[in-house]
Amino acid sequence: MSNQSIKIFKGNIVFTKTKNEFTILENGYIVIKDDKIEEVSSSIPEKYKDINVIDHGNKLIIPGFVDTHLHAPQFPNRGLGLDKELLPWLETYTFPEEAKYSDLNYAKKVYKRLISELWKNGVTRSCIFNTIHKESTKLLLDMFIKSGLGAFVGKVNMDRNSSSDLTENTQQSLKDTEEILREYIDKSDIVKPIVTPRFVPSCTPELMKGLGELAKKYNAHVQSHLSENPSEVAWVKELHPEFDTYGSVYDHFGLFGQQPTVMAHCVHSDDNEISLMKKNGVFVSHCPHSNYNLSSGIAPVRKFLNQGVKVSLGSDISGGHTASSLHCMVAAVQASKMRWIDSEGELDSLTTSEAFYLATKGGGEFFGKVGSFEKEYDFDALIIDDRNLGELDITIKERIQRFIYIGDDRNILERYVTGKKIEEPKFD
Amino acid sequence: MSNQSIKIFKGNIVFTKTKNEFTILENGYIVIKDDKIEEVSSSIPEKYKDINVIDHGNKLIIPGFVDTHLHAPQFPNRGLGLDKELLPWLETYTFPEEAKYSDLNYAKKVYKRLISELWKNGVTRSCIFNTIHKESTKLLLDMFIKSGLGAFVGKVNMDRNSSSDLTENTQQSLKDTEEILREYIDKSDIVKPIVTPRFVPSCTPELMKGLGELAKKYNAHVQSHLSENPSEVAWVKELHPEFDTYGSVYDHFGLFGQQPTVMAHCVHSDDNEISLMKKNGVFVSHCPHSNYNLSSGIAPVRKFLNQGVKVSLGSDISGGHTASSLHCMVAAVQASKMRWIDSEGELDSLTTSEAFYLATKGGGEFFGKVGSFEKEYDFDALIIDDRNLGELDITIKERIQRFIYIGDDRNILERYVTGKKIEEPKFD
């Protein structure tokens, strides 16, 4: 074994192997070999005694955050127009903004700011919707590769029920998607294209069928929206009365777990849809801020967890206003408490460790062995200095809870992705 | 008229004279005379043409934020223990911390950090619960006076159903309260003692009666908690079956609007209680983050507003985790959207201007002519630099919305209280 490929970090190590509790190693060690976790232990293993330890003292070392749902072109709209529900908000704010991304100069300006914001907030992996535009999607893929952050980036597909400047020709949409998949699927280990039908109402059956085939052909991941809003669910039922649930439409076209798939929202998923998600291993991207802001409701996260459905967290910029995974964790816990009340105590609220799990390992699983400090996991990590949040003579578990609730990007000192320290992204 | 006492500020002026809309003066002028607003106008009035204008360029000028409910001694507990409901949370986290404030050195260390946090977040006026301790309450009053920020600070009264180290002797409790009122009621124009029965379950009728009399004698304001949690409401009903509502108990003892009164939470106030609040002019301090965190529920803010009850915003540190009025505004809007769903569309959600109103003029009214830029109002203001939030070529209304949703303390450049610029508080 060459010791050259080994790094050892020391500090207060916190992660969630399971959602039920924090695993905490006070003054513990993480041994990283070839950019992956080799082991985590309370004392330094004898065989590594000659290796220089990078000592982070009393700081916290936690997994990087994973954001499984956000829209790059909506970044400039954060905090705007949130007096509307989903469908009118799309028409008024979202679609006009998305039409601008045929202009690569404009796109680049926005993407720079988006990637910096993700970096700042310690979001080391993310699942991104771009627009319909092929060239700007490639630009965003290239910019993520340059940044060192991990991401799945999808050219959006939509060929019906959209404004004229965003409605694609079906064959052209598939052709552009395939071109991106071919060029980028193997270009980077951590930045990849993802098949991205916008949502059922904006995709013809022919387009969904073609996208399902492309996902399979290129072994690509899939992302879309599901059961966000009652009007949207009713619209899908009207468009496809032949299917039992909204999710069944995607399923029919090979876009519901046939390849690894994440579905954003799932606020109004019924028991049949939840069963299908469980059966197919479909991930939920729970986006509580967006579901609040667009008056969509509160997703039954406890029900998903009880039934073994995989759940992750999404910011849903700009339905959600904040890229902060901390804010999303807090909102997830808070929303679950309102759901606990609504269910008259049937659906337990989320604990802090569960929210942390959703924001790390829960979403990380969509990327592979990501989001935890277990053997063979990619070393994606954040170094947290929480001295400004109060006294440090409380337990490490209390310190991580306090950081989640009252910390912000200023507490994140360093970010690592697959073992490499990521500096603030700079683009020309 | 001496021009020496006149100051003129220029910038993009935003405030809410009424809750229904933002009043916006793009590149407008605020004329301040003797620390109060003289006028606000789009061009500089002729008679002031010789006065030097303090030009804030393209920045926003908004009223300072008003936080009508928070607990100073709970500041170190922010973000801790939020997996519990109100009553167990009080027992486990709150009361043990509050017992420490007989130690003035400990108290001072916490108060320094609290006042700095309020300053940082642009909270220019606040209503504060301290502990039962007389000396630490005086210390906190003195520290606020030194800081230049406005505050009502209350020595908490509790003489039943509390842990032994926090249960007061009734007469001593009244005596200590009177001593503080006598010494401080006229000491400062903007920092004053406030009568603060903790809540009905912890105050005997004798204590409440005495506090009502003291409030009247010293013409002092009153604050307490009301109808936060179903168990608490049931407990009050059990203690006082002779009263129609929880609020009626306070009312009976002269603590419900006989002097200006603010009641925190009011999540479970029924129609009778709401009518009494309206009749007596009692202010609600709506604390959405706390109500989420402690699983209390969502207050019927729209119902309060429809019925003409005065509503303000509270952080409720540390039931609420954040001192940011921006976060509280967003939570208020989001909570109202969930209440809109629960009421099947009967209770409209809050607009952004309504949330802003609650955080400025709504709470400011409790302090006098505070929280708006109207003639004779105290000039309490924040200068906002929002350049880092995105492009500035959107409307001023959109810029204020964006600041509310995605801004933070870093966007607050300057803070003014009654016309004076307030620097970051420094204590020995």
UniProtKB/TrEMBL annotation, chains A, B:
<dbReference type="Pfam" id="PF01979">
    <property type="entry name" value="Amidohydro_1"/>
</dbReference>
<dbReference type="GO" id="GO:0008892">
    <property type="term" value="F:guanine deaminase activity"/>
</dbReference>
<keyword id="KW-0479">Metal-binding</keyword>
<dbReference type="InterPro" id="IPR006680">
    <property type="entry name" value="Amidohydro-rel"/>
</dbReference>
<protein>
    <recommendedName>
        <fullName>Guanine deaminase</fullName>
        <ecNumber>3.5.4.3</ecNumber>
    </recommendedName>
</protein>
<keyword id="KW-0378">Hydrolase</keyword>
<comment type="pathway">
    <text>Purine metabolism; guanine degradation; xanthine from guanine: step 1/1.</text>
</comment>
<keyword id="KW-0862">Zinc</keyword>
<dbReference type="InterPro" id="IPR011059">
    <property type="entry name" value="Metal-dep_hydrolase_composite"/>
</dbReference>
<dbReference type="InterPro" id="IPR051607">
    <property type="entry name" value="Metallo-dep_hydrolases"/>
</dbReference>
<dbReference type="GO" id="GO:0006147">
    <property type="term" value="P:guanine catabolic process"/>
</dbReference>
<dbReference type="InterPro" id="IPR032466">
    <property type="entry name" value="Metal_Hydrolase"/>
</dbReference>
<dbReference type="GO" id="GO:0008270">
    <property type="term" value="F:zinc ion binding"/>
</dbReference>
<comment type="function">
    <text>Catalyzes the hydrolytic deamination of guanine, producing xanthine and ammonia.</text>
</comment>
<feature type="domain" description="Amidohydrolase-related">
    <location>
        <begin position="61"/>
        <end position="420"/>
    </location>
</feature>
<dbReference type="GO" id="GO:0005829">
    <property type="term" value="C:cytosol"/>
</dbReference>
<dbReference type="InterPro" id="IPR014311">
    <property type="entry name" value="Guanine_deaminase"/>
</dbReference>
<comment type="similarity">
    <text>Belongs to the metallo-dependent hydrolases superfamily. ATZ/TRZ family.</text>
</comment>
